[in-house]
Design brief:
The structure is a single chain. The C terminus is likely disordered. The chain has 231 residues and is of the alpha/beta class. Helix 2 runs parallel beside helix 5. A five-stranded mixed β-barrel has the order 3-7-6-4-8, surrounded by five helices. The chain is 38% helix and 22% strand. The chain contains eight helices and eight strands. It is globular and about 50 Å long. 45% of the residues are buried.
Length: 231
């Protein structure tokens, strides 16, 4: 009987709180900060890795709060497929979700023209900065990998500068940095308010969807697993 944890990869502190639960070991913050921890967790016998949280929209028609289940992760011209069985279970739990490839990048994609270009060149529908790293490590160690993300900024929207400085490396909010950015460029306040509204929709969808994913984040074989709370 396998009682090793499922490893959830997140970026923001609220994403980590959403992902947490019995049998889930959560890593939070910018992906580069926890590569070694993720490697160690997999070597210790992690059952699988899931990337969960918010993402930027690349495909037209995806709105804030829409779920995307990744069929694969594309990064630097390389596609890493997700675990089909796990992905299908996620789709069952979130029947309205899009099922398509997503992109993984090392720097934010914030301009709508850059989003359009990435969508056209890769065919991916969403983008984040954690999934590709998690996918590489999962593939290297031969463990199941899945990614489910909620759209926060749609493809047609360019993010204001203040939206990019609002997070510390550990995933917690940096309100002071946001205020400083607004003082320097006060005209971005209306764009930032729109981002706040989008973030509220994404956060609500993430919390509601997490309830539907259930214990173990829909990981296959739960009937054969004894999930214990991870410390």
């Amino acid at each position: 009987m396998n009682n090793q944890p499922i490893i959830a990869v997140t970026c923001l502190s609220f994403e980590a709180r959403v992902a947490a639960g019995p049998g889930i070991s959560v890593l939070c913050g910018t992906a580069q900060r926890y590569v070694d921890k993720l490697e160690s967790a997999v070597r210790a016998g992690g059952s699988g890795i899931i990337s969960i949280g918010i993402a930027g929209g690349l495909a037209p028609g995806l709105a804030p709060g829409d779920w995307v289940i990744a069929s694969g992760v594309v990064t630097n011209g390389v596609r890493i497929p997700t675990d089909n069985r796990w992905s299908q279970r996620l789709l069952t739990a979130l029947p309205g979700a899009a099922y398509a490839d997503i992109s993984g990048v090392d720097a934010p994609i914030v301009d709508r023209e850059d989003k359009r270009a990435l969508h056209q060149s890769t065919g991916t529908v969403a983008v984040d900065m954690e999934s590709h790293i998690a996918a590489r490590i999962a593939a290297a160690h031969g463990v199941p990998f899945a990614a489910c993300r909620v759209i926060i900024d749609p493809a047609e929207r360019t993010l204001p500068p203040a939206a990019l400085v609002g997070m510390r490396a550990d995933g917690t909010p940096d309100v002071v940095a946001v205020v400083r950015s607004l003082i320097r460029q006060p005209r971005q306040v209306f764009a930032l308010l729109r981002v706040v509204a989008d973030a509220r929709a994404a956060r609500t969808a993430l919390f509601q969807g997490r309830q539907r994913l259930g214990v173990g984040l829909s990981f296959p074989g739960l009937n054969e697993m004894r999930l214990e709370p991870s410390l």
